[in-house]
Design brief:
Layout: H1 2-20, E1 41-45, E2 48-51, H2 65-92, H3 97-124, H4 131-140, E3 151-160, H5 166-173, H6 180-191, E4 194-196, E5 203-204, H7 205-208, H8 220-226, E6 229-233, E7 237-247, H9 255-288
Antiparallel strand pairs: 1-2, 3-4, 3-5, 3-7, 6-7
Helix pairs in contact: 1-2, 3-9, 4-9, 5-6
Length: 297
């Protein structure tokens, strides 16, 4: 442990030399009155010092030398900048020390409460959300799920122009036979550059056709009304799109499209309710045990 500390201190000194362009003031202190050795100074800002031990928890013990140097260098630079800002602030503004201490305590207590609430919520939270809960929330809040974009369900395939058996691909894209989808999957795994074959999944139409000739369609709503299957191309690729159905902006999102969003909303609602419940239970318990008292009522 002692050897690793010395090695770490040497590393910090080396990094500081890089940061500050020299190590004139980075010296080992003289033996102190206790017969030991003063801490190694790593950096200074006016009358404040950063010591090697201050970096002990910053750099992981198993980090590679290059990574350790990078982490230490970044921390030292950050420390210097913060201390310079603090000194500049102190020289320009007369701070009320009592008010400053009160704010520090308030922050400390708020942080303690936050960490305890997080611990309690993570311990008590029921993360499983049933399909029934999701459906109930959707039905009760449909107006909150108005679409901001066009979405579609269908199949999309992008293949190089020189791909083999293109007529077969066109045939499979029609999805007229029961096994066409499986044949289409097999073809895409072998020859396609990109594809989307889940006919039941709603996707953002703009995102799906990005970097394809379909992106330049001037009125995509009218185009979708008139086209259920399209083949187009650019210099290197062929693009096939079969639209099963679509919804446009300002319509209500289908449940499948917002399912994950609703699940997140329900879980976050549970977290808020647990935090409120915790505070209520602690207060009621303290009140019952006469743990607090308000004078002057």
């Amino acid at each position: 442990m002692r050897n690793s500390r010395k090695a770490f201190a040497s590393l910090c000194l080396w990094v500081t030399g890089i940061v500050l362009g020299g190590c004139d003031y980075l010296t080992m202190g003289q033996p102190n009155s206790g017969g030991g050795e003063e801490e190694i100074k790593v950096a200074r800002v006016n009358d404040k010092f950063l010591y090697a031990n201050d970096l002990a928890d910053i750099v992981p013990p198993d980090a590679a030398p290059d990574d350790s140097a990078r982490i230490a260098k970044r921390y030292i630079n950050s420390w210097i900048r913060k201390q310079l800002m603090i000194d500049e602030a102190a020289s320009k503004i007369e701070f009320d020390e009592q008010e400053l201490e009160r704010k520090i305590l308030d922050y400390r207590y708020a942080l303690m409460v936050y960490e305890f609430e997080k611990y309690y919520v993570n311990t008590e939270l029921q993360k499983k959300v049933t399909e029934e809960e999701i459906a109930q929330y959707y039905e009760a809040n449909k107006d909150n799920f108005e679409l901001k974009q066009i979405i579609i369900r269908g199949v999309f395939v992008k293949v190089p122009k020189e791909a083999p058996r293109l007529n077969k691909l066109r045939e499979f894209m029609e999805l007229k036979k029961d096994d066409d989808l499986e044949k289409l999957k097999s073809y895409c795994y072998r020859f396609a550059s990109d594809f989307m074959l889940d006919r039941n999944t709603w996707v953002n139409f703009e995102e799906l056709v990005t970097n394809t000739p379909l992106m330049s369609i001037p009125n995509k709503v009218q185009w979708l009304e008139a086209n259920k299957f399209v083949e187009t191309s650019d210099d290197h690729y062929l693009y096939f799109l079969k639209v099963r159905n679509y919804k446009i902006s300002n319509e209500i999102s289908p449940l499948e499209f917002v399912r994950d969003q609703i699940e997140t909303i329900i879980i976050n609602k549970r977290k808020t309710e647990l935090a409120t419940q915790l505070e209520k239970e602690i207060y009621e318990k303290a009140e019952k045990n006469d743990a607090f008292e308000i004078y002057g009522k």
